[in-house]
Structures are given as structure tokens and as C-alpha cells.
Amino acid sequence: MIHPSPSAAAGRPSTGALLHRFANPGRFLRLSRWLFPLLSIAAIVCLAAGLGLGLFFSPADWQQGDAVRIMYVHVPMAILASSGYAALALCGLLSLVWKHPLADLAAMEIGPVGAVVTALCLATGSLWGKPMWGAWWVWDARLTSVLVLFFLYLGHIALIRAFDDPQRGFRAASILAIAGVIDLPIIKFSVAWWNTLHQPDSITLTHAPSMAMSMLVPLAISFAGFALGFAALVTGRLEAAILEHRAQQILTRRAGARA
Amino acid sequence: MVLSLFLCVLARDLRLALRHGTDTLAALLFFLLCGSLFPLALGPSPDLLHRMAPGIIWVCALLATLLPLDRMFGAELEDGSLDHLLLVGLPPALVALAKILAHWLTTGLPLLIMAAPLSLMLGGKGSDIAPLLAGLALGTPLLSLIGGMAAGLVLGARRGGVLLPLLVLPLATPVLIFGAAASDATVPGTGHGIELDWLGAFLALALPSCPLAAGSGLRAATA
């Protein structure tokens, strides 16, 4: 920061100051005015390139044939489903600890997008499972834990909208999101802890990927596309939610002035 | 001081449960009825029932603990006595813990006692009962804690009763999986150690955190 904020000058920790720079809805609206189109365009470009490369130009797998191309949708969806929930829990933490006003609205908007992503992850996984494993669904540890994640998303969506006082919904949903985080390590490590039908991770941070570059590059590009798309949807929905909130305030004020 | 207040709240809840005996027994009756429906639907084959008994008992126990959750704090929010309970000088988390403990004593403990006869009815042998009870003894307090947290969070929500299972069931799946695995004596060589360890670990995690979450819900509902 160029200008030290008053709280930092007073010797207090400035984490809150940095956090609250983006807590101002007006500042967020100015940011999202250019960020939203930028994210959307980048997402469309990456998706066109990644999915185009993956579906038409990447080689078929020597074992799985053309069915491997489901991977270019399934893997990004799976990563985004867990990251989306992690984001939800982070919003919950920001809301509970720092009472960050945008974190509550963000949690409200991340929920439905994350639930759809998780549903798509389950659907594409099922479509992939039928030709490879011979079954639409197996009660495998990873599949089951992602299904539980889907239900956690649904519970969060229902809870955050269930109260007449929105603040109560935000608070309850924050606690639920943090409690549900216990499912994320179970998903991550289920393929390592239990001997399951789902294949173990091909891409890890510590080892070289056990995947050909001709498949990895389209996968990385389509993942970037889906991630940017996720961010664009959340930014757009957040912008709409703030504007809706403002419109309601103006209407209430007008109604009050008339009465 | 805190302990005696805690015991007072607990005794009050137990006395209320005793006075409303039919309401308290409803969960237990549900457990037995639900358990005896399975042989009717699956057929009376002893082998099949013996293999499925731990799973059936665990699912029935999970559903039976859900039944009284709606009234756990709801009844007292409606008649206003929840405000009084929060004013007696106990932190909200301890009020929640007392009510969760009362829920376990009136629902979990009777389930634990009736699980042995139900297991025998479902074709269980004498040697199956010890692992089943060990799993349930760790699992039912865990279910009460998770349920109490959810009941505190949905307090005052529209359609809270519908919302409750949606919140409890996903969080209770690890309990169900490890509990049923710990009780499953039909798979040889699996041992009962690791699953019970996991249940104990979950219980150690839930015991301090669930009452805190439920307490924050109580405070928000009465504010």
C-alpha cells in the first residue's frame, strides 16, 4: 500500500485494512465493471482453445479411446467443485471473524455456481464411468464424498436463504460452510487412502505428471477456461446482487418518503 | 457455580422429557418399527439379514436421532423460555451442550439399549453385539452433537424442519460409514480398531466445536 492507513499508523495490524479495501461495495462495482467483461472474454477464449484442442486435436488414449475426452470437462469440474467449497468456507471465515460484508454476498453467489459445477462433475463422471467401468455409478469413496459435497452445497444454498433476517442466514451458513470443510480432505485423499475404482491423481505438485503433454496442455487450457468462467459467473452474480440490494434500498426510501 | 447451573439445565430438560414420556419414546418406537420393516421388505432370509443388520441398525439409529431435533430448541424458542435459559448466567455454548447431552440421554442411550435386541431379531449372533454397541456408544453422542449444531443453526428459519435433515445427513455420513464398518463383524480380518479410533477422533473434534456453533445459533435466534 502506498498510503499507510490510519489503523496501520496507529500500530495495529493492518490485515483488516487490506481486507476491507474490497469490502466497499462501491469499490467492488468499479472493479467489476471492467473485471467482469475481461474474465468473460478470457474464459470464452480459453474454453474455445482448450476444448477445441482437447476434443478434436489431442490424441485418443491407447486404453480408453475417444472416451478419454470427457476428461477435459470432468477434471476441471472436479477441481472447481472442491475449490468452490474451499472458497465458500473462506468466505465463511472472513464473515465470522472480520464481518466482511462482501464475503456474505459472495458466499450467497458462489453456492449455486458451485452446486452446478459439482452436479456437472458427477454427471460427466457417470458418463465416463459407463464405458470404462461398465456402471453409471459405483459406491466408491471418491464418488460418494463428491456426492456428499453436492448435498453440502444444497444445504448451504437452502440455509443462507432460509431466514427473514439475511444476517442470520449469513451467519448460520458461514458456520455450516466451515463445518463442511471436513469433506474436502476426504475427497482429496480418498483415492490414496482407500483402494478404490477411481484412478489416483495423475497431476500432483510434487511429481512429474503421468500424462502426455499432448493431453496435459489442452487440459490445462480448458481448466483455465472453466476457472475463469467460474470467476466471471461469481463476479457477475455478485455485481447483480449489489445492484439489486441498492435498487431495493432506493425503492424503500421512496416508499418511505411518499408515506 | 457453572457446573451446578449446567446440571440444573440438564435436570430440567430430563424432567421435561420424563413428563412428556410419549414424545420421548417416539424416537425409540420409530427405531424399532423402522428396523422391523426391513425383514418385511427384504424377506426373512437369516443370512441376508445377518449381513445387513449393522447397516440397518445404523441407518435406523441415524433417522431416529433426527426425529426429536426439531423440538430440541424449537419448543423453547416458541414459549420464550429459551431467553430465560440464556439469562441464567451460562454461556450459550454450555446451554446448548446441556440440551445436547439431554438429547443423548433421552434418545441415544435408549437406542443403545434397544440395539442389542434389534440386532438379535435381525439374525445377529451374541458375538456381534459387542462391536455394534461399541460403535453406537461412540456414534450416538456424535449424532446428537451434529444434530444439536444443525438444530441451533436453523432455529427461527422458515421451513426449519425440512432444512434440518438436509444439513445433518451430509455431515453425518462419516459417522455412518465408520460406525457401520466398526459394527460389521461379518467381514473377517478387518478388526474393529481403526474405525472406532476414527469415531473417537470425530467425537473429540465435535465435542468442543458443535456446542459452540449451536450456541452462536441460540444467541442469534434470541437476539
UniProtKB/TrEMBL annotation, chain A:
Keywords: Cell inner membrane, Cell membrane, Cytochrome c-type biogenesis, Membrane, Transmembrane, Transmembrane helix, Transport. It comes from the Bacteria. Its main location: membrane. GO terms for molecular function: heme binding; heme transmembrane transporter activity. It is found in: Cell inner membrane; Membrane. One of its GO terms (biological process) is cytochrome complex assembly. Residues 32-198 form the Cytochrome c assembly protein domain. GO terms for cellular component: plasma membrane. The chain crosses the membrane at residues 34-57, 77-98, 110-129, 141-160, 172-195, 215-236. It is a multi-pass membrane protein. Required for the export of heme to the periplasm for the biogenesis of c-type cytochromes. PANTHER family: CYTOCHROME B_B6 PROTEIN-RELATED, HEME EXPORTER PROTEIN C. Belongs to the CcmC/CycZ/HelC family. This is Heme exporter protein C. It comes from Swaminathania salitolerans. The lineage of its organism: Bacteria, Pseudomonadati, Pseudomonadota, Alphaproteobacteria, Acetobacterales. The gene is ccmC.
TrEMBL record, chain B:
Pfam families: CcmB. The chain crosses the membrane at residues 25-43, 55-73, 109-126, 132-155, 162-181, 201-221. It comes from the Bacteria. PANTHER family: CYTOCHROME C BIOGENESIS B-RELATED (PTHR30070:SF1), HEME EXPORTER PROTEIN B (PTHR30070). Belongs to the CcmB/CycW/HelB family. One of its GO terms (molecular function) is heme transmembrane transporter activity. GO terms for biological process: cytochrome c biosynthetic process; cytochrome complex assembly. Keywords: Cell inner membrane, Cell membrane, Cytochrome c-type biogenesis, Membrane, Transmembrane, Transmembrane helix, Transport. This is Heme exporter protein B. The keyword Membrane applies. The keyword Membrane applies. Required for the export of heme to the periplasm for the biogenesis of c-type cytochromes.
